[in-house]
Amino acid sequence: MQRQAKPTVIFGGKVICPESGLNAERDLLLEDGVVKAVEAPGAFSGVADAVQHDVSGKLVLPGLIDIHVHLREPGYEWKETVATGAAAAAAGGFSRICCMPNTNPINDTASVTDYIIEAAAAAGKARVHPIGAISVGSKGKDLAPMLELKEAGCVAFSDDGSPVMNAGLMRLALEYCLMVDAVLTVHEEDTNLSHGFSMNESVHSVRLGLQGMPGAAEDVMIARDIELARLTGGRVHFCHVSTARAVELIRRAKHDGISVTAEVAPHHCVLTEEAVGEFNTQAKMSMPLRSEEDRRAVLAGLQEGVIDCIASDHAPHESDSKDCEFERASFGIIGLQTTLPLMLEKVRSGSLKLERMVAALTCDAARCLQIDGGSLAVGSPADVAVVDPEGKWTLSRDSILSKSVNTPFLGTEFCGKAVNTFVGGCLVHGGDLEMNE
Amino acid sequence: MSKENAITPAAFRHLLGIEGLSRDQINYLLDTAEVFTDINRRKIKKVPSLRGKTVINLFLEPSTRTRTSFEIAAKRLSADAVNVSGDSSSVTKGETLIDTARTLEAMAPDVVVIRHSASGAPQLIAEHLSSSAVVNAGDGLHEHPTQALLDALTIKQALGTLSGIKLVLVGDVLRSRVARSNIFLHRVLGNKVVVVAPPTLARPEFEAMGVEVHHHMEPALEGANVVMSLRMKKEYLGQSFVPTLEEYSHKYCITEKLLAKYAPESIVLSPGPFIRGTEIESAVIDGPRSYYDAQVENGVAVRMAVIYLLCRGLSARASTESDAGMEDLVDDEIIEELAHAKAG
Question: Are residues B182 and B122 in the same domain?
């Protein structure tokens, strides 16, 4: 996907690669797009003709993987493009992202998939894996041509924000995917229970006079799809799990040996419905921000491994769609550049172990959708994130590489950032780092 | 009432809701309104206190009674009142609410009264107006603060007190902004608030707002001082919350028989409009317990008080800049008038 990079030595850092069980001072040699060798410090100091990157005091991680982003192209290029989304990914330490099919047109044909893959190749900042639609037009009626989509490059299938309400269709999709060999990654919301909602249902929604979505709207669909996975043997991945009950349902399903995995979004780990305050539209998302009890439960579920991975649900929207009446505002916030610092904050506060966080952003994320990456083992793709866990920075409009700036964290001072991102051995973020060539 | 008790302009920049107001602020508003009720009973019901002030009534949801009440209130204070009406859904087709606010601001109104179908719309308008005060005349399912204030004034006049009372809200509390504003107001005053409706409407979340939730009339009404009938909207977002209004009525209609047995001393209020025979018996709404007419009358006084105090707050700010003498004069004039009206 990129111009051939010179061999690169990344030295002086601490390598954390849960996939290969490594957590130690190591130097890396990247060559021909793969991790050529991983050795003790100083091993590659004599390698001639290699770019030497000094990353002393930094963490060296497999390039981060985000399996749930919205790149808005084709169709909503004023919100985001594949190129700007990929640039934001690189700046956030992500070398691999999976984009949801709710573009215009919906990614339910190979031509749309091709278009996204070509746009990503041109951008060259991150590996982009499209997710195809489960049903034609995500309308929940007829199966999309999932085999054609898979062959074109889709890695998984989802109707995302338009959940498959028809259990019969969901069953067929799960069965069909046994042949396609793909996971269904689903936004679980019973739209009959959530009709017209704009926040979590609780005393806060009642107080503000806003329609709420009860946690049960998510839980009943997760329970349904666990049973359908049990029935069919198909594989389901649950997007942005937000309730304590959902964590329990998934725990039990895994205990029963059913093929389910789950992700959590950073905002559900750090914010609650109280962030809505007096109609703050930057706190409006779907799944909605939930209660403190839910927040603690999803975070604990992540640490425990019941929730497999972290995904940003990066959802760019132009300012006008947030600067309006709360119930008319768009759902969602951007997340590619804030995911890592927000989760590092949870590591510092002790509710998440560093190695667990790294796994949830790398190998465990890859495993959920059966994609490559997430490892620094010799022979793996040379995708690397160099992270300064103490690096202080402030999220400003200027520092956001997305086309949209919809985030409740604008102005927040963060501790921890990705200083370099490599994709296939090429430096795609942080070129200003001191280098000893 | 003395000038020293005045709500500071900072604390009373807008009236977006009852939530957040203190007991003192509520009492101050009611005391001011009480003085204006006297003016409303005079032969000449107009005072010059807000000459040269402009009030825009921006009603983006159909309303006759509230808009008329605000308009009369502004005119009796000699402010220039302009009505802008429309449908908030048609507004979204073209202009955004923020652009509407910007356009209005350029015309330099002193007060913008807004009714809107979206909860939080007055808050949004207020965030985008730098010099005008905003009054919430009802936003979505959120708040209707002047209604709760006029209800409180009516209760105070009828019972002689606003403390130690039990208020029972009957009907569609879930979709009622009147209910929310009343709950906030009476919880701040330390009164007991009870809601009674089918469980589809009287949700347990209300308990966290300090409210007792009931699904049966008898225990709810027991010992009530004030019973308020809320309008039943049969459908909302395409969903009916009760099977039929007949079935609702059978269980929840406010009847003289029930009141006589469980709350013999109780007065009855309604924000109107009400469905006779379904929500409330004609004998009750037309009988001596009913203070419906007083509510409507007090509506004008409360809205005069709100507009007056907001304009005065703005005047206080303006006075620090240039025309201090003039503004003070207007204030003294009305204070005198108010004192005179109260004495007479």
Answer: no
B314 and B178 co-located in one domain: no
Maximum distance among all alpha carbons in chain A? 68
Domain of residue B192 covers: 145-294
Residue A422 at interface with chain B, using a CB cutoff of 8 Å: no
> Pick from B40, B79, B120: which is nearest to B294 by CA?
B40
Q: What are the 10-residue block averages of pLDDT along chain B, 344 residues in total?
A: 42 88 93 92 91 95 92 96 77 76 91 96 93 96 98 98 97 95 98 97 95 98 97 73 91 97 97 91 96 96 96 59 40 58 51
pLDDT in tens, A284-315: 999 999 999 999 999 999 999 999 999 999 99
Instruction: Determine, for residues A210 and B120 on separate chains, whether the beta-carbon distance falls below 8 Å.
Output: yes
Q: How far is A418 from A59, CA to CA, in rounded Å?
A: 9
Position A221 scores a pLDDT of: 98
- Degrees, nearest 5: CA angle A392-A393-A396: 165
Contact (Cβ atoms closer than 8 angstroms) between residue A27 and residue A11 = yes
Instruction: Name the phi and psi angles at A323, rounded to 5.
Output: -85, 70
Question: What is the number of structural domains in chain B?
Answer: 2
Q: What is the pLDDT of residue A434?
A: 37
Query: By CA distance, what is A208's nearest residue in B?
Result: B142
Q: Which residue numbers in chain A have pLDDT < 50?
A: 1-2, 433-437
Q: Using CB atoms within 10 A of its CB, is residue A52 exposed (0-12), middle (13-18) or buried (19+)?
A: middle
Angle, alpha carbons A344-A316-A159 (nearest 5°): 100
Q: Give pLDDT, residue B329.
A: 39
Token readout for A436 is 């000893």
Domain A63-369 coded CATH 3.50.50.60? no
Q: Do B124 and A324 touch (CB under 8 A)?
A: yes
**What CA–CA distance (Å, rounded) separates A313 from A336?**
8
Structure-block tokens of residue A167: 């259990």
Reading the block at residue B328, the tokens are 């003070």
CB contact A279 to B (< 8 Å): yes
Give the DSSP letter string of A272-314. -GGGGTTT-GGG--SSPP--HHHHHHHHHHHHHTSS-EE---B
Question: Quick one: B116 and B26 in the same domain?
Answer: yes
Q: Is B97 within 8 Å of A324 when comparing Cβ atoms?
A: yes
d(CA B60, CA B288): 36
